[in-house]
Structure formats: C-alpha cells, structure tokens
Amino acid sequence: METLLGGRPRSRKDLRFRPRSRSAHELWLVIVDASASTRRHQALSEAKGLLAQLFDDAYRKRARLALMTASGDRPRWQLQGLKASSDLGGWLEDLGAGGGTPLQAALVQAANWLAKRRKRFAAEQQRVLLLTDGRLKAWSGLPVFNCQAVLVDLEKGPIRLGRAVQLAAELGAQYRHIEDLTRV
After folding, report:
1. pLDDT one-digit tens code per residue, 7-35
2. CB-based contacts of 95: which residues, under 8 Å, 6+ apart?
3. What is the CATH number of the domain that holds 41?
C-alpha cells in the first residue's frame, strides 16, 4: 500500500516493504499431565474446562499452540507450534487419563523443543502452562524454561502431598491451584 501511495514505482528503490505484523507472534506450550492420578476428584475434568478457555483465548489472540500430554510410558506431542483452531474441542473431549507419569521426560523434551524454536523464531514470545498434580516419585535435573511459565496444581482431595509447589519452584514457574482458577 505504501508503494502505491508514492505513485507508480519506476525502479526497485521505489518499492517499500513493511512486514504484515509488527508484533511478535506468541507461542503457548501446554503440557498436560494425564496420568491416572489426575482422574481423582474430577481434577482432569476441571482442567479440561480451563483448557477449553485457554484454547479459545489462543484462537482469539491468533497465538500458536504446542500441546503435549504426559501419560503412559512416554510423553506425546499433540500439536507443535500450529495456529490455534476450534478443532481442539474434539481432542479435549477425548482426553482421558491413565498409566504412569512421564512428566520429567516431557519437561526435558519440551525445554529442548523450545530452545530450538527460540533460535529459529527469536522474536516469538513463548509461554509455558503445565497442568499436573505433582505426584511424581522423584525428579532431578529439571530444565528451567527461559520464558514465562505457570504450573497449575491439579491435586485435590483430603490428602494432598503438595509436591507441585516444589516442582514449580524448581522449574522457575509461577504456582496456581486449579481451585483458585475455577472459582466464580
């Protein structure tokens, strides 16, 4: 448009280039602990409500999403840096919990993926959301995400181990409990 406002271009130097968007894209990496322990006391159901809202916000902000689940014997990528879409509702409906908690492997894999992506898209604003009940037997050598990170604690019920607080501190993430986020 700027080129045309200056009149008919006669040479290459008359052309004016401007990027489509001056703001950097956002990438939201969501890691969902879908182990069997997250089924207790409808914790995963509440997490699904939170995720539905998050997916809707990402779609409206035109953010890119990366989505990983940690259940069974290894973490699995569901999306890797695609634009958020309304198609995620079906995936969210089918999300179930079961098996072990390969959360440490998921965190390491996610941190490595983010580091590679940061080299490729330096201006991209990265954010991490981790949903877990923190029920890991042990962990060591956790990665620190070099971006804004939030851990949402899904642990509910009368007996709480409180490991998610320590996990958030070691990851350098803000800590929030699901009950605080879902209260009206």
Report:
1. 677 787 777 766 555 556 899 999 999 88
2. 32, 34, 44, 48, 69
3. 3.40.50.410
